[in-house]
Design goal:
Radius of gyration: 24 Å
Largest sheet: 5 strands, mixed
CATH topology of the largest domain: Aspartate Aminotransferase, domain 1
Number of domains: 3
CATH class of the largest domain: Alpha Beta
Strand content: 15-25%
Shape: flat
Distance between the termini: 36 Å
Helix content: 40-55%
Strand order of the largest sheet: 2-5-6-9-8
Structural class: alpha/beta
CATH architecture of the largest domain: Alpha-Beta Complex
């Protein structure tokens, strides 16, 4: 039986400890060692078994592909952040000059960068202000807000302004790929909903891939999870909220259901 400290020193488990914490990795190692004692594994399989048992990330939340046709889905995390906003939140997660002027060496106004970006985004406004009574959350919010305003169009903006003809073309390609594999897949017109509390009842023309309803459950529990909607006894994979770069992931997820 390999010693626990020797197993934990394996490069892949050292990396996992940095991502998940030592306690979680040690628990997976102990489980693998127990399987060795029970004769289920060989001693040289402990590291591989421990790695296989580890979750992909420290949080229980799983990223999903929102193919429901509801852009602001309250059950699926609302509006996704842009790459610029994610990078800004990552920077804000550590020490920053949030209330400090690095040039003068004195305290500065919190959120000044975000408020300047907001003022530029709405030049007709007489003034702008951001209010929040949670300092830690405010730092992350301001960082994401400023990056969203200054950076490229965020995913929600792309979804709101997606060309219906381009969506139909994507649906045709995706449905064709699945049909060539022998699946009952069809490109169909669809109607997406903006969703959220700010635009109830607002719909947008969209396009979807229609599949048999039986695909719904396996797709939701696959990797990555793909969440569509049931309509008329069929599962619709609405593409308006799905970035074009994820069409291949959707195709692979559907094909994986059929093995």
């Amino acid at each position: 039986m390999p010693r626990t400290d020797a197993v934990l020193a394996a490069p892949e488990l050292v990396a996992a400890q940095g991502r998940l914490g030592r306690a979680a990795v040690k628990k997976a190692v102990a489980s693998a060692q127990r399987r060795v004692r029970q004769g289920e594994l060989g001693p040289d399989e402990v590291v591989g078994a421990a790695v296989a048992a580890l979750p992909p990330r420290a949080t229980s939340l799983r990223p999903v592909i929102n193919a429901t046709g509801v852009l602001l889905h309250t059950n699926l995390g609302r509006a996704p952040l842009s790459a610029a906003a994610i990078d800004a939140v990552t920077a804000a997660a550590g020490p920053t000059d949030v209330e400090f002027d690095l040039v003068r060496g004195t305290r500065a106004r919190r959120g000044r960068g975000a408020m300047d970006a907001l003022a530029q985004a709405v030049p007709d406004a007489e003034d702008v202000h951001v209010v929040n009574n949670n300092a830690a959350a405010l730092v992350l919010t301001l960082a994401a807000l400023e990056a969203t305003l200054r950076g490229p169009v965020p995913p929600l903006g792309e979804a709101l302004h997606a060309d219906p003809e381009a969506l139909a073309a994507r649906a045709a390609v995706l449905a064709g790929t699945l049909a060539e594999a022998g699946l009952d897949a069809r490109a169909v017109p669809s109607e997406a909903n903006v969703g959220g509390g700010g635009a109830p009842g607002v719909t947008l023309p969209s396009a979807a891939v229609s599949l048999p309803e039986r695909f719904a459950g396996p797709l939701r529990t696959g990797e990555p999870p793909v969440v569509g909607r049931i309509e008329g006894g069929r599962l619709l994979i609405d593409l308006r909220a799905v970035p074009g770069t994820r069409d291949g992931d959707v195709a692979r997820a559907v094909l994986a259901v059929e093995g």
